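User: Teach me something about this protein's shape.
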Amino acid sequence: MKNYYAVALCVIASIAINGQFRNERSFKINNGKNDIEERTETGKISTSSSDLEISGIDGSKLQKVGLRFDRIDLPNDTEIVEAYIQFTSDDTSDEQELIKIKIEKGKSAPFQSSPYNLTQRSFFEETVLWDIPPIDKKDQRTRIERTPNIASLLQQAIQDNDYNNAFVFIIDGDKKESITMKSSDSGQKNAPELIIIYNSNMVSNSYYIEDEDNDAEEEIESGSVDLSSSDLELGGIDDDTSQIVGLRFKNVKIPANANVKEAYIQFTSKKESEEGAVKLYTEIGDGKKFTEEDYSISTRQKSSLSVNWKFKLFDEDHHTLNERTPNLREIINETRLRGWENEDDLVFIIEGNQQNALNMYSGGHDSHKVPELIIIYDEDQTTPWIEGIESELSKIEKLYINEVAANETKLINSDWIELYNAHDYPILIKEGIFLSNTKKQLEQFELKNIFIPAKSFEILYADNDPEKGNHHLNFKLKKSGGDLYLTKNNNTDKLNELSSIEYGYTSYNQTYGNKNNVSGIVETYLEGGTPYESNEESIRKLSLSASKVRGIYNSPFELILKTSQENKIIYTLDGSYPSNENGHIYSEPLLIDQTTVVKALAITNDGKSELLTHTYIISKNNEEFKYEELFNNRYYLEALNELPIVSISKDNDDLEGDEEPTTFEYFNGEEMDDGISIEAGIKKFGAFSYHYDKNNIRFYFRKKYAGKLNYDIFKEYKSAHKPTKKFSRLELKIGEDGVLNNDFDFGWLRFSDYLLHNAMLDMGHQDVKTQFVHVFINGKYYGIETLRETFDENFAESYIGGDEDDYVRLDNRDSKWRSGEVEKSQYEEQWEEIKDDPIRYDYQAIKERVDMPRYIDMMLLYLSTDIEYEARGLMNIYEQETIKFNLNDSDGLLWHDNGWKYESHWGSRLEGPGYIFGNMKDSENLEFYTHVKDAVYKHLRKEDGILTTDYFEQMIRKAESKLSNSYILDVARWGFREDLTDKWHEEINRIIRFLPTRFDDVINRFDEIRMNHTLNEVIISKNNQNDNIIILENNDPSSKIYFTLDGTDPMGNDGVIREEAIEYNSDLNRYKIDQSGSYTVFARSYKPNNWGPIAIESIDIYQEKKKDNYSLDFSSSKIEINNKVYPNPFNDEVHILFKEEVYNDPIVIQIINMKGRTVYSKSLHKIKKNESIRINTAHLISGYYFIKIATSKGYTTQKINKL
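Assistant: First, the predicted structure itself:
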């Protein structure tokens, strides 16, 4: 479920009952001026008290209370079923009190400070009486108090002709003693709240700007975007700066069959202003997140229709009025017809006439002030409709395929096809028109409900995902080239061709299109083409090539640049970008006799080539090496061939300042594989190391450069780790264990990052992939760095699932190791609840929120390797996925023999990120303790464990071998002493010698805190291949053995014996299985409050010999069940997120191995929407399985992979 900013109004539920919709909505008092107290004797009005004495007396003073709920938009046919006001008590009371509630007639204007402003109003006679029992316990001072049903009061008020979307209540009591409730001045959480349940033929939903990131202002001239402004100048001008405004409302619900009756945005004015006017548009399709990238509002595709809104003068006395737009139904319907889907985000673009500022409150303020979108609809329409559309098929003739993108573009993350409507009127294609990528099947995709404005364009997405909506085709495009056909059914046997186009090989951010939008010359365009616009202004792509691929060469050579005869080539040799103002005009071959970065462009008046960037490495290039005597030129080239090359080229050599454009090249010199070149952003980063002469460097592969990097950089990793090939960010990490210095006595291993992250990967968890590389900047050698992924939102998108916008980072470093810091403060509550009662000691609740197998393994790695206490978490703010943690700094890894940080690690640092490890340790939860013992046993005590001498010695020697010659080169360039390479080998040998002592010490320390198994692992065996008897042994007659046959843990939640677990009869010393099949035996030894290690064995039982002939029997019919299985591939657990509710229909969830054997089964009778089911899969062996979800109506299956 998506989380929203705390609001004064929210739709809690809307369900259909007997043809009507039952809506439940809540309205909170949104500021101190809307809950008041009036003294009976003087009439004085108080608006700032933190509590409300609703019993009619405050000490010895008599009074009455007034409540005003505003911004209440109920449909005209509203029938109120139930309503009540909810308070939070603020103090104890001894007496039972009778409270009287009435409602005001008429317009219910805002409260004023004038005396008797409450009691001088006119109220209906009907009174609701409320008996409040004594509040006699201190722990009930904050209990929820709810009035009786006041529906009859509200029904009277809304039927009044003067009703104006506000209710005023007057509350009095029998004045026995003060009954105190919290007011809105005590905080929004405890403010009085009106809850209304009503029937209507229409649904009325409200949506708020939930935080500052969802409204934005863009300067028209510079394109600069501001996401943090405290107000919005809708009029299009802020002082002397012209601007436009964007608003993004998240997860807006408008079903496909909804008939929108009314829609408007309500603002709260912030300052007085003269009159003005604005135009409102919608963004076409799912509204994209606002970013600070230049022109990120104006470059969006907006609706062809707009809504004009004129403001009247609002002066100083009236500048906090609610300002409401005209009906926005038509522009909302346009985006619905052009690809927007139910529950997408809805973006509005507001352009003022730049006459006056028209200041309104932005998001991030009190909920009653932020922009609010209200949409009212019924569900009696099949297609959204706009006046003046032509939908008759016979009148749709001038329709053309205009432009094709077969390899994605910056503006659109998909292959796409643009259609052009050459008619003088807008059209709605209901049916009968087809689009195809093969002449053999011209009816491949039928266009339905596609709206195209007059003389305008529409985009269709070739993503082979028609379930996403009418604008998504059922085929993809080949970047190697192909044909497209647009045809129409004229009620004849033969389809009539409206348009066709042939396109060739297409690179990223390039398109093919018709020069005049209709037909004729087909050209290739650069810079993403012109989606939704004419091709006449497109930039034509020119050819340009070089006679040598980038790489390492042993001797000088001549480089030839080639293009068409009429084109001019401009080149540079210093890394800077060529242009008409910078560079040399190419006229003859270039002599490359030293390491050089060649950048070149071919240019004409109406076109240009892609930027050609090739780095050629031949010899040293005037770099300042500290110890040149350590190598010669031949040795230099041999060392460079050991590792891949990252070449950085830009307009200058330094890395100071903000992010700037650069060219990123990656290639393997030894293989001469040509590698890749891509435009990116570059910026140095780091904490203490930020001011080193050699820097950590971060690359940003953003849309404004060339989009994501798409290259198999980490291909050497095993397929089990499945490294991604697409990157939004990469880092070059020097680490504080490099050759520059020995700050903080971290050492100079140079491969700490490599060891740390590979250990986490080999423990079975997705983690950062790393690669040692040589780095060049503008042709000069920069030394060795570790190229690595970033454990951030992009990592989560690649390896966990969803979109990177779904995640926020938790940083747990240094003083915030335990407390943590949420990157976006509005999501702190989701993190804080993990650390607070009652959740912090509840292992079941923690398991639902945190990936505990990963967390426990991370803590073992941290405690074993002696590194700094820095971690990072990735938290999904929408889906019910568990937080994933990783260790974010490897400084000091393994360097100190006697435990540099051991004492703090095993003291306060043992609490771990979020206090989770420490809280669970203190709780002495048996299941948690057993899980830690399992991890210690698996990783530290088993011979093939990851936290063992053998593993780390093997990985250290592997790193030493990878860097053998390159390390010398790095020392020669940057070393803080000349003999550092010899010292490096000596320290490596010292570290390896100490490994046995190190890991023994760690095991002993786990012994001391009772987190090491004391019971034996069960041995599982079978008499012979044809026997149906299994035998379990643990060589400990004083303990019992519990086991299961379906691979589930015999230990249940919180360490209890699972109900399905079988107790092994040690006296018989055998267990007979009567049915043939494949079984996964999961066994543990057991004593009271003590479980033994995991023992798992797959066993086949045969009652009689037969052919090994297995099949998966999925009986009954296949159906669609809206769910998401993640992660996939998985390790110790897998989750199923159900995206729709299931009532009174038993659901059976099974995991089935490839031989057809059920290894897990669970039955459920009710599943809520967005409920996530967690399945422990630690017992499963690596390989493929099917997950089957079955109901009485049928089943669905998905193939899953256990790593």
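Now, about its shape. Confidence is low (pLDDT under 50) at residues 1-13, 315-320, 1105-1116. Residues 627 and 978 are 7 Å apart (CA to CA). If you'd like, I can walk through any region in more detail.
User: That's plenty for now, thanks!
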